[in-house]
Design a protein that fits this description.
The protein is α+β, with helices and mostly antiparallel strands and about 250 residues long. The chain has helices at about 45-55, 75-90, 110-125, 145-155, 185-205, 215-220, 240-250; strands at about 10, 15, 30-35, 40-45, 60-65, 70-75, 95-100, 130-135, 160-170, 175-180. A 4-stranded mixed beta sheet has the order 4-3-6-5. The radius of gyration is 36 Å and the shape is elongated.
């Protein structure tokens, strides 16, 4: 007769993992791991449970498929909290599908198209997929090739960071295409941007003075012909209106 005791843990969608804790662990013996990840060895389950209770902790089955199963002495509440944090973090880092619409008609200014292309590029560099949608109004449906050509031009412009995941699809009076980030190309573009940024920062630094200490004459304050010291030079910015007047009056 087949053992069907484990079937209650399965559903139509696939197996559901149930973590056995303390008295729910029925198999004996188990391979025991201590709270500091030290290998204790193979012990009987009641003895492992007693050791966990003496430390105020739980006995948790961490590798149920091995024989004997691996159990660890740990704080089960803290373990569940850390698992939930990891799941939340992994789901928040997932890529999203961003939609960019090319206006309400095929008649859209090229400048507006470029703004949307730049936005799509930022999304792709951040690791998101992009769905670009072109809408058609009225008799524009008789010239579908205009919208399709525009979508292809956008794909060509973004080919340095993206790859086409789905060809143009029609849904009523609109056609859309999906682009996905091409990871090797995205990394190459990011490295190039970083190098350009560093080059700009280096170019913006003031030039370092040439070697050699200044002599006494360079440090001395300038004097007028009568031996008098010159006053400090006026560092105030000249009014541009005064300059314009001087040029008009020939001053």
């Amino acid at each position: 007769m087949h053992d069907i005791r484990g079937r209650r843990f399965y559903r139509d969608a696939g197996p559901v993992r149930r973590i056995r804790v303390n008295h729910l662990i029925r198999i004996s013996p188990v391979r025991l791991v201590g709270p500091d990840n030290e290998q204790i060895g193979v012990v009987e389950t009641p003895e492992a449970l007693r050791m966990a209770q003496e430390q105020g902790l739980d006995l948790v089955e961490v590798v149920p498929d091995s024989r004997p199963p691996v159990c660890k002495i740990m704080d089960y509440g803290k373990y569940k909290y850390e698992l939930s944090k990891k799941e939340t973090k992994s789901s928040s880092k997932g890529s999203e599908l961003k939609e960019i619409r090319l206006g309400r008609s095929v008649k859209i200014d090229p400048h507006d198209v470029q703004i949307r292309v730049d936005q799509a590029r930022r999304f792709l560099l951040d690791g998101h997929k992009v769905q670009i949608t072109q809408r058609f109004r009225g008799r524009e449906m008789m010239h579908k090739e205009l919208g399709i050509d525009r979508l292809r031009e956008i794909c060509d412009e973004l080919a340095d960071v993206a790859k086409v995941e789905s060809e143009p699809r029609w849904a009523g009076r609109q056609a859309s295409i999906i682009l996905a980030p091409d990871k090797p190309k995205v990394e190459a573009v990011k490295r190039k941007m970083e190098r350009e940024k560093q080059a700009r920062e280096q170019a913006g630094k003031p030039a370092e003075p040439s070697g050699g200490a200044p002599n006494a004459e360079e440090l001395a304050e300038p004097k007028e012909k009568g031996g008098k010291k010159k006053g400090p030079k006026d560092q105030r910015a000249r009014n541009p209106i005064d300059e314009e007047l001087d040029s008009l009056l020939g001053g």
